[in-house]
Specification:
By secondary structure, the chain is α/β, with parallel strands linked by helices. The protein has 2 domains: 161 residues; 66 residues, Beta Barrel (OB fold (Dihydrolipoamide Acetyltransferase, E2P)). The protein contains 5 helices and 16 strands.
């Protein structure tokens, strides 16, 4: 979701700096800038992200038309850059510490934020009629805990760790999978597909996971190209953020 937002803003002419944790647990890695944490650089739909270490490297990346990405869990770089807009795209279903005073415009994605109190605007992230809506007062829809429905499937399409330990995939993103097939393992215990489709996302090998943690995502529509492009949900949320910024800029 964060990459979908950043991608839309960059294409719209904004300079965006992305901050990340040291060990990102993104499942849809082929469309996530967080891969730059491990690889040093990555590319999503024509936009290149590059891992940087400070202000000078951030400005150089912008000059080169890239998206600078820093390992900065506390987003301390905001005190150096003094951004006009701060977007909390952690999607933790709660506010982990973002304040309305962090920037002239602070936008929170999804549940856990209160527009007008801890952030200026909230963007609806639940699939459905309100997806991408800009909320100027109040909160987004509460987290249901149920994955969004795709082709009639919700829980079934999400792969979860059967135990705690080191994760190891047996399939790659874009591979076809069959119901009942083992697509990964945790400490030798198989992660079994509950539906057939295409593997849209899977964790990097070697990451430590907890029991029941999301480790993969099967798309029952089985369109391989979808694995390598930003989802309709992320694009809608990115559009909501862009709308919110333009609303405030044009007031």
């Amino acid at each position: 979701m964060a990459t979908g937002v950043a991608h839309r803003l960059i294409r719209s002419g904004f300079h965006v700096c992305v901050t990340e944790i040291a060990h990102p647990m993104a499942v849809r890695r082929t469309v996530s800038f967080c891969e730059a944490v491990f690889e040093g650089r990555t590319e999503v739909e024509g936009i290149r992200a590059e891992r940087v270490a400070g202000k000078e490297e951030i400005f150089r990346a912008w000059q080169e038309g890239k998206a600078p990405l820093m390992v900065d869990p506390e987003c301390a770089i905001r005190r150096v850059l003094n951004p006009d807009v701060l977007v909390d795209a952690i999607l933790a279903k709660r506010n982990t510490g973002t304040l309305i005073t962090d920037a002239p415009l602070v936008i929170g994605l999804g549940a856990g934020f209160n527009a007008g109190e801890d952030v200026h605007l909230v963007i609806e992230t639940n699939r459905g009629h309100q997806l991408g809506k800009v909320i100027e007062a109040g909160q987004a829809e509460p987290n249901t805990g149920i994955p969004g429905k795709i082709a009639g499937y919700t829980w079934e399409r999400v792969l979860r760790a059967p135990a705690s330990g080191s994760f190891m995939g047996r399939k790659r993103i874009g591979d076809g999978v069959e119901k009942g097939e083992v697509v990964a393992e945790v400490e030798g215990i198989g992660v079994v597909a509950e539906i057939s489709g295409v593997l849209r996302g899977i964790l990097r090998d070697g990451l430590l996971v907890g029991e029941e943690m999301k480790v993969g995502d099967i798309d029952p529509r089985a369109i391989r190209e979808h694995c390598f492009t930003i989802s309709e949900k992320a694009r809608a949320i990115g559009g909501g953020v862009l709308e919110g910024i333009l609303m405030r800029c044009n007031k």
